[in-house]
Design brief:
alpha/beta; FAD/NAD(P)-binding domain; 7-stranded mixed beta sheet; about 35% helix; about 20% strand; globular
């Protein structure tokens, strides 16, 4: 931290920033993180045999950027055997073996049943189309593939795609759509379809794994490996070109510090990136400012029951009748042998309910969440040992209908830039694979640019100009 000049400065210590830093770990790098921990929304707290998961928790399949990084730093994943499309409906949890059985098994009126089956078939057809779009095309870059997938059903809202079903069916799809931290009206149809696609893809599920020990282990391990190349409690104020270098100004512990680098990778939420970065085209800045985020308050729960519980074989429950939208059983992947006492659960809300909950205290959120948890599973009364409320704002990113990301894509293809961007907003809906994939590409572009500069002789006049810029 006594250095002032680097090959690369990475801004942000979430999955994108850490992926970029790891890709460039052979160079002289500095990672600037606003908080006192790494990992971003990958956040968990160890509790004996279990852990409190408070943020992202579904990890992608082998061959993904995220899994490649995890493998290289010695982290293991565990399979999720439990049902991932259960529903709490009318005071009962339905968890059939096949999602197609839900309209047949749930208690509802004939009108509701027909509506649910009709919409379900349309969503299933759209999911199959989304899965086809997800397939790689020969010669296509990952960035171009993501952009192509993001355009799938992007011109209409998920609301327009779903229509206006009966009230209870409406509540079910709205609750499921809020996994994107947005209402159906606010997200494009491709966002909603991709949410269902991640659950309905069966044995080929691309998001069906947990990190053994909790998602927070990713940031904790990176903290150990990166060591003093990370600056914590660092709030970046400005990123601007300074001759052949890039100047980064940040505050830490009441001090303002300026460092320079050949390359800078900005891996923070889009609107924050727009507020700190200078010297980018106006259309790129506007694109960053228009990226949408939705807040979501989560709550982790540690329990101390000594015997089986009715949710042991379930991992995820959509909860249209609760004040939260999703219920997760994070002990489910650990139920492959003799059942140990206790467990770990998580609930969260998205969309408008989440925005309303963000206005009340943590204690009020806890009380509201627990009231509905006890309605779902009365057996939990007297067995909640600990709760932790975590507010995520900004939370998940999502794209509204008609959003145009092309200016950023065009910027990323330029060969003359020294300020690069990465983050989960590079696709229709954010997740850790999008974040790490975009960071991998940003790091590669930064490396190529860095190497080209190192191979290029610098004139005396250019060097004097650079020195003068640094002294300003």
């Amino acid at each position: 931290m006594n250095n002032t000049d680097y090959d690369v400065v990475v801004i942000g210590g979430g999955p994108a920033g850490l992926a970029a830093a790891w890709e460039l770990r052979d160079r002289k790098i500095l990672v600037l993180e606003k908080t006192r921990r790494l990992g971003g929304r990958l956040y968990s707290i160890a509790r004996g045999d279990y852990w409190l998961n408070l943020g992202g928790h579904l990890f992608p399949a082998a061959g993904s950027h995220m899994r490649n990084i995890m493998h290289s730093i010695g982290l293991d994943v565990i399979q999720i055997p439990g049902n991932k499309f259960a529903i709490w409906w009318g005071g009962r949890v339905y968890a059939p073996k096949a999602v197609s059985a839900l309209p047949l098994t749930m208690r509802m009126s004939l009108r509701e049943r027909i509506s649910l089956a009709s919409i379900g078939l349309r969503v299933l057809k759209a999911v199959r189309g989304w899965q086809r779009e997800m397939q790689p095309v020969l010669g296509e870059s990952n960035q171009d593939r993501r952009a192509r997938v993001a355009r799938y059903m992007a011109d209409v809202s998920f609301r327009q795609f779903i229509g206006r079903p009966p009230e209870r069916v409406e509540a079910l799809f709205q609750s499921a759509a809020r996994r994107a931290a947005a209402e159906m009206e606010d997200q494009n149809a491709g966002v909603g379809v991709s949410l269902f696609g991640a659950v309905w893809s069966g044995k080929g599920d691309s998001m069906a794994l947990n990190l053994n020990g909790g998602s927070g282990r990713f940031g904790e391990t990176m903290e150990e490996l990166l060591g003093d190349r990370v600056g914590y409690n660092a709030t970046v104020k400005q990123v601007a070109k300074a001759g052949e270098r890039v100047r980064v100004t940040y505050e830490t512990d009441g001090r303002e510090i300026t460092v320079t680098a050949s390359q800078v990778i900005v891996a923070v939420p889009a609107f924050q990136a727009a507020s700190i970065v200078r010297d980018i085209p106006d259309d790129v800045s506007r694109t960053l400012q228009n990226v949408q985020y939705g807040p979501f308050p989560t709550m982790g729960i540690i329990t101390d029951e000594t015997g089986p519980m009715p949710y042991d074989d379930i991992y995820a429950i959509t909860t249209p009748d609760a004040c939260f939208d999703m219920f997760f059983n994070h002990a489910n992947p650990l139920r492959t042998g003799p059942r140990k006492p206790g467990g770990s659960l998580m609930v969260y809300a998205g969309g408008k309910p989440a925005a309303e909950l963000m206005k009340v205290s943590d204690e009020e959120i806890r009380d509201r969440y627990l009231a509905d948890v006890y309605k779902m599973f009365p057996e939990l009364r007297g067995h909640v040992k600990e709760t932790v409320v975590q507010r995520w704002t900004p939370g998940n990113t999502y794209r509204p209908a008609g959003f145009n990301f092309d200016p950023m894509l065009a910027y990323c293809k330029r060969a003359d830039i020294d300020i690069h961007f990465a983050g989960d907003y590079f696709a229709e809906i954010g997740n850790m694979e999008i974040a790490t994939g975009s960071a991998h590409e940003a790091a590669r572009r930064a490396r190529v640019r860095l190497m080209s500069k190192e191979a290029k002789p610098v004139s005396a006049g250019a060097r004097q100009s650079e020195i003068a810029e640094r002294l300003v």
